[in-house]
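COURSE: Structural Biology Practicum
ASSIGNMENT: Worksheet 4, Part C
STUDENT ID: 0417
INSTRUCTIONS: Below are two proteins. For each, the amino acid sequence is given first, followed by its structure token string. Answer the questions at the end about the second protein only.

PROTEIN I
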Amino acid sequence: MAALSRRSVLAGTVVAGFGVGGVPPASAQQRRSPDRAVSLTRLEQEEPRRLTALVTKQRPVEPLRYLPPDLVTWKRSRHQVRAEVAEHLDAMFSAALRSDLRLRVVSGFRSYDTQADTHRYWAAHYGQAAADVTSARAGHSEHQTGLAVDLDVRGDAGRCYLDACFGATPEGRWTAAHAYRYGFLQSYPRGYRDRTGYVYEPWHLRYVGPRVAAEMRRRGVVLLADYLRQAHRVADPALPVAASRPR
């Protein structure tokens, strides 16, 4: 099945059916736990369950109208993220810039009500089926946690804005290779639509903290649900399971 992107929906072409990385942020250099080999950030120490909470089509944000307590506005934008996410984004963007790569944030925190409006818009204009693979329903969006961001290439006139082609840009390839160093992962990678329920979104990153992101990378685990299952931290029959190899 051909990949469905937001751009293809908008165009009316819906198909049915460390390396270069920089120094970690200061929050990742806090006191060492005696039973861990890595330093823990504030959220890793104080909110580990929130930090790695699954938000999927089956599992909503808890509580349903959750509002992050420490939202800050991302520099030179109107988008908000949790304070620690902003700090680690800044470190990642600075590392990318040292490789002459320029990123920008095009979406951050979205409230329950904002997500409801977003999903209704997609459903009204492009149909429910298209909306359900490109936009989360209210209460089921990682953006509501304040831990997720959508990225784009700064200065290219939005050529790959919310489109799969972002993954093929130098910025997209660098992000895929290095985001884990700063605590981020791709929630909707290529070939996992049958698992996530969403099309490939190389622009969408979810912050889980440097410790979990690095451990997932080391193990070769792509999806957070699989990491949590392997770590025996979830046992939920509603979670998507690996029924087949990724396409």
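PROTEIN II
(use this one for the questions)
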Amino acid sequence: MVHPSLFLYLIVPVLLLRIPLYMVLERRHRAYEIRYREVIWADIGAAILVIPILQGADLIDSWVLIKPAIPASVMALPLACRFLLYLLLADLGHYWVHRLMHAPWLWRIHKWHHYPTYMYWLAGVRASLPQQVLVNAPYILAASLLGFSFVWLAVFISLKNMLQNDWMHLNVPWGNRWLEWIIVTPRYHHVHHSDKPEHYRANMASLLPIWDHLFGTYVDPETLTERPKFGIGERLPLVRLALGV
């Protein structure tokens, strides 16, 4: 579990410093019209609620996950090589966790994330407790490659996933086909949040789009005839959404 002082001194400054940058970017390069004043307080409330959810997910994962043994030959590799391998394996695991959460029997734990009917950097902050437990798992299981303590790993995962999540949901039209072979862009991920059934399981990658290309879930944003609309088409109590039930 992340110690509160580490969260305060390492994560909170990033939370605060990124806000003016995103606001400027979205003001100058807005992809969708949105009335920020009408949604910002609900999203701030969701962000505050997610903090104990993240803490609880870290605690649960530290109890239930067993770190696999890594062959000595792999651990002898330079740290930079092991870090790249870590990102590759963890991101692959994240892709499959995300894909499973869109299966009918696990969809309820992921609904909250798709609940907003708008798109901007804070709209993707929602993560139910079981969702976060599952998303953390591949990062923690692959962490044996690094040899870091769980506390510092939890800080890294929190920062990385937070900034990655902000980027994917940013209300900008950025992205093109060649770049989207390398990294998930905002327009690439926006397709995934579309309220059209044919996009429910599209563009599920979180960092590396190669997984969508390999496993048949890629949809080219340039083939869309109109900009997507968002939401799940139903209203549910906040408690059920946050608990994933």
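ANSWER KEY EXCERPT:
Q1: The CA atoms of residues 96 and 219 lie 17 Å apart.
Q2: The chain has one domain: 4-243.
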